[in-house]
Amino acid sequence: MELQFLAFSILFSSLITFVLLYLYIRYSSFFNINNKPENISKLISKKTVPTSGGIIISFVFLILILVWYINDPKLFSSIPRLEVFIFSIIALTVISFIDDFRPINPIYRFAIQVTVVFVSLSTIETHVFQFLPLKLSVILSVYFWAYYININNFIDGIDGFEISNVIFCCLAVVLATTMMKINILEKYLAIGVLSASIPFLYFNKPSAKIFMGDSGSIFFGYIIGWIILRLISIDLWFVAIIISIYPILDVTITIFNKIIRGYKPWDRLFDYYFLQGVKNNKLTHAKTLLYFNIHNTFGIFFIYGCFYFSPIYMITLSFLSSLLLLFKYKTYKI
User: Fold this and answer.
1) Taking the complete model, does pTM exceed 0.85, yes or no?
2) How many separate domains does the chain show?
3) Strand partners, 34
4) What is the residue range of 42's domain?
């Protein structure tokens, strides 16, 4: 893809995203798409804010992908079935958009996600976990991907938090592929997500003027999950681990504790570590986000360091950084 065309398409998609989000916010009351905090959710935010803005990001991303495909079909040769990839994004986004306003039973929702992910494995042509037999690799890939999709949904609870995580993941992918001087689709998908995410961050940063809703968090979980599996399959496993380590730790530890206490994994208790300070009125959304982005900045340096030092050493530092952040958030828990 020519650099000039790439730059123009990125700038254009960013501008379109900004304009559509602005219009979405302005006319949200007319279409009755505002979030109304109820019960325990009022501990996190008492504001009535337009929600499900993620459908805008998904729409712009798909248009950008189609434009790139028309311009350079060879770029998408690593996706054996592009139509499945696109259909899966549309299906998950639409279902999640509906779920934002008419909640779907979590079991049914997860079953749909697992089905879509299983079908989507046909878009990844390589044996992902090559150290495992093929069938075990498929099972692990499906459940990891479905779990990661939901992890992104669970960490969407603080103004700017989930979108900051997405931006960090995409920047890390772009950095790693640039350092290795490889021109692969994963790099362009990350750039495409960035082009729509940065304008969204402008409206979603504290104090948020719009929420992404499930239509955003599920979409991001699907895309980043696909990229993570692809990174593992092309021996960039260290990047995959570093970009996913904090969300996985926070959500997994919290779910484990929740189950021990007799709750269902999907019960909305707002007990994830990153929520504690805001929930207890000891931290603002902005300060919570600041701690997270400091952690993400170190993550970028850790990925950069993987090309000069042992990746295991950098992953260990990333793991310790994540534990430190969890400990920092935990200090605000009552």
Assistant:
1) yes
2) 1
3) 50
4) 3-330
